Amino acid sequence: MCLAVPVEVKQVGPNETLPEGRAEVEIDGVTLQVGTALVERVAVGDWVLLHAGYIIEVLSQEKAQDQLSLFKEFYERVGEPHER
Amino acid sequence: MSGRSTKSKIAALLKEMRATTNSPLTFMEVCGTHTMSIARHGIKSLLPPNVKIVSGPGCPVCVTSAGDLERALSLADRPDVVVATFGDMIKVPGRERSLASARNVQVIYSPLDALALAERTPDKQVVLLGIGFETTAPLMAATLLEAKRRELGNLLLLSMHKLVPPALRLLLADPQCGLSGFLLPGHVSAIVGRAYYDFLKPYGVASVIAGFDPLDLMESLYLLVKSAHEGNTTPVNNYPRVVNEGGNTKALALLEQVFQPVDSSWRGIGIIPASGLALTPDFASFDAATRFGLSTEELPEPPGCLCGSILMGKRLPSDCLHFGKRCTPSFPVGPCMVSTEGTCAAWFKYNLGA
Q1: Average pLDDT over residues B155-181
Q2: N or C: which end of chain A has fewer CB within 10 A?
Q3: A30 close contact with B: CB closer than 8 A
């Protein structure tokens, strides 16, 4: 039930179509109004983690890099040939 | 990625796992979404014979007590009420029926749908079923805050929320559990952060926060084997693309503003002190249990159902007399078969007992 999916933010309220505390995101071509109350800041173009209609985290390039670097050394050390 | 295929990475991780130790290790995944991902990707079948994973009490629907379900059912027939719930709860069998057959139930995707419903139907009391752990409770908190700000008097919450740490403590205090470590939930951790689990250190077990794809799971299992072997008891964050050290401070502040810990009954396990969330005095007017004077009676489990022991990782679905016979996803006896994230549902769907 704690399913959360990464989505891209298309609009942030308040504006003509969205009230305060809402953003519009797109999932597989479907647009959805979601709550922004659980994050400090969110901007158009941000990738965010969506859980049951609320943004629970804003994702970033640095965080993605932290993830990749965790096992970088491991995969280099165990050194099997690259497949791609 | 570093240019290496997922398959070869997984092979390398398995090789390192085997090289690290032959000692028997049992880890528990404490998240229903992990349960399903592990089953779907056949992770258990890949692991070395000394490394076992068991499922824990991480499916919110499965741990919702029979008494809480009856309380929700008692509201769902009132003409002045609409019960708004995540779809997972709909099929859970109560004493005589489930929410699916009750009169006034609305399935929602988000608590914000319940807010909109309350606004659209001012003549009804909309009762939101508060199901879920630290991931979901802040959403309810944010929704109630918005209802308060907008002076919406007809949105109520029946809180059945649960907290992860008290269940982990209970498991570790039980000598029968014999766990070497925990695969910690990824999205609970997005809210609470890594440091939340530092309470685990004195128990001498390994723990790793994991993401949900097969590589996330394999890397995290390798880290669990390594931590257990090296005696490292500091919880490791292997999901930094989503989880940070201190968690989502805004969500945690909302949680604290709206909820306070309370003793809570877990299905098949019983009451765990300070393991649930009740509304704080400032939000007491949103409490559906008080508004409708609901009983606090707890109910026994369906006869023969092993959900309680399965949730504690002590028994396997195949140990249950009902499993796959009287109890199937179409006609479930207990909640572990109802929820798509339940251990029994995962075993049934992916034929794990075979």
Answers
A1: 94
A2: C
A3: no
